[in-house]
């Protein structure tokens, strides 16, 4: 699948010339490839075909309504974590009855909204939340569909900020407490429909083993809950990692790569399918990064170069407010020039943004082509948790987003203006 590749020395997204696009639309600019998004979605579905698994796209990864609409039209469900995400899904034409709603801190207003819209299920993260949902459902005269998120206490082998399935993480309910919680709910909470079981052990997993361990540990629990409480589904969460390094070899950007990561779609399927298939439950997966991560790039322009005593800096017009992953998780993103440098002159540099923070970098000590002032760079693998984690810090307007389809492209979110920055603010009399 060619999503970002050089043609005659210029980087393209599908058949769109990114130099021309950025010259026209300005930078920083998020660009997504429609074909790549669909390719990843369909490949995951195929890999899990023996389970007939439902793919519930994790909206938080990239929540633009054009992307959600694309997923909805292709039959995806959605994994949401807020009332705002449900609102987006509905605006995008998504089906609420295909939405699962996770998160440790759902508010009463959000729970009411989700119940009124008829979501598929709440993935509940504590006993207190179970009781709250029961009370709200009772006040509305309905039964709320719920699944409890089990925390299986397995090692995910990912960055500590994105591990979610260890006992010390805030997510889910301890494995050992699940059976008694379902028993309590069945006994005491009549406005709940015990519909399923859910887990999610972390994000950017690059090995199959943690998935295997978690599924093997939790499947007997799912079987027992099916027998005792008639649950219908088991969601195994998302977390499938992508390749962040070496993504552009031979002009092909692929999210799987046997050399870089042991996790491939087939090893993932091999890890989970044999244990899940005999359960006879509706299986859900909740991928975010896998679908959009390598389908997006952040295009930025080099504003200045600075040679300091200790370092060379390439100062670009995208900052940590546009892409926070390097600052937050030491996340690595490949950075390549939009116009190839035939001379091959290289430099070791920090690629930094305009924000007043020393943590405002996109790369540090990076060996890279010696791009000059005014030239464009593409920050790759930025489709997931890129724009969706962006902010207005330093009063910087949020970037524009463009969706490419073949040789066509559309602005799917316009660049914010300075007026947008103060919308809703007021000065007291
Ligand atoms: C409950 C839940 N499901 C799915 C996801 C999606 O994860 P990923 O983008 O790693 O597939 C997340 C985020 O980690 C999550 O918290
Ligand atoms: N936002 C993170 C992952 C966390 C996923 C949400 N639970 C990232 O960029 O890698």
Descriptive overview:
This protein is of the alpha/beta class and 429 residues long. It has 2 domains: 4-30 and 294-422, Lyase, Ornithine Decarboxylase, Chain A, domain 1, CATH 2.40.37.10; 34-289, TIM Barrel (Alpha-Beta Barrel), CATH 3.20.20. Helix content is 28%, strand content 25%. It is built from 12 helices and 21 strands. It has helices spanning 18-25, 34-47, 65-73, 83-91, 108-117, 127-140, 178-188, 209-229, 265-276, 289-292, 325-329, 418-422; strands at residues 4-7, 10-13, 16-17, 29-33, 54-58, 77-80, 99-101, 121-124, 144-151, 173-174, 192-198, 233-235, 282-285, 296-307, 312-316, 335-337, 346-352, 361-369, 376-379, 400-405, 408-413. β7 (99-101), α5 (108-117) and β8 (121-124) form a beta-alpha-beta unit. α5 packs across α6 (127-140). The longest helix is centred in the middle third of the chain and has 21 residues, at 209-229. It is globular, with a radius of gyration of 23 Å. Mean pLDDT is 94; it is low at 249-261. The site of pyridoxal-5'-phosphate (PLP) has 17 residues, from α10.
């Amino acid at each position: 699948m060619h999503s970002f590749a050089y043609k005659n020395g210029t980087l393209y997204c599908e058949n769109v010339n990114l130099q021309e696009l950025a010259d026209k639309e300005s930078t920083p600019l998020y660009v997504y490839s429609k074909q790549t998004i669909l390719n990843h979605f369909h490949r995951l579905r195929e890999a899990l075909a023996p389970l007939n698994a439902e793919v519930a796209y994790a909206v938080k990864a990239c929540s633009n309504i054009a992307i959600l609409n694309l997923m909805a039209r292709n039959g995806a469900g959605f994994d949401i974590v807020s009332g705002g995400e449900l609102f987006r899904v509905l605006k995008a034409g998504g089906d609420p009855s295909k939405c699962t709603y996770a998160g440790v801190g759902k508010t009463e207003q959000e729970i009411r909204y989700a119940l009124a819209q008829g979501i598929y299920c709440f993935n509940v993260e504590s006993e207190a939340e179970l009781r709250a949902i029961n009370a709200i459902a009772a006040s509305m005269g309905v039964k709320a569909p719920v699944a409890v998120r089990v925390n299986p206490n397995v090692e995910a082998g990912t960055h500590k900020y994105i591990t979610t399935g260890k006992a010390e993480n805030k997510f889910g309910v301890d494995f050992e407490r699940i059976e008694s919680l379902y028993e309590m709910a069945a006994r005491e909470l009549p406005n709940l429909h015990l519909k399923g079981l859910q887990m999610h052990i972390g994000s950017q997993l690059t090995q199959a083993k943690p998935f295997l361990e978690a599924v093997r540990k939790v499947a007997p629990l799912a079987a027992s809950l099916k027998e005792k409480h008639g649950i219908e589904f088991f969601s195994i969460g998302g977390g499938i990692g992508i390749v962040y390094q070496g993504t552009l070899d031979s002009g092909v950007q692929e999210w799987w790569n046997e050399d870089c990561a042991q996790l491939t779609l087939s090893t993932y399927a091999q890890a989970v399918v044999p244990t899940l298939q005999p359960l006879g439950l509706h299986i859900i997966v909740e991928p975010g990064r896998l679908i959009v991560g390598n389908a997006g790039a952040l295009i930025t322009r080099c504003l200045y170069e600075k040679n300091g005593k200790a370092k060379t800096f390439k100062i670009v017009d995208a900052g940590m407010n546009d892409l926070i992953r390097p600052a937050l998780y030491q996340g690595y993103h490949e950075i390549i020039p939009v116009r190839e440098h035939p001379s091959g002159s290289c430099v070791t540099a920090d690629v930094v943004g305009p924000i007043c923070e020393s943590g405002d970098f996109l790369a540090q000590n990076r060996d890279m082509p010696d791009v000059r002032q005014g030239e464009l760079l593409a920050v790759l693998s930025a489709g997931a948790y890129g724009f969706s984690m962006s902010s207005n810090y330093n009063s910087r307007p949020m970037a524009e987003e463009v969706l490419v389809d073949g040789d066509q492209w559309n602005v799917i979110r316009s660049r914010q203006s300075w007026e947008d920055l103060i919308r809703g603010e007021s000065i007291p009399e």
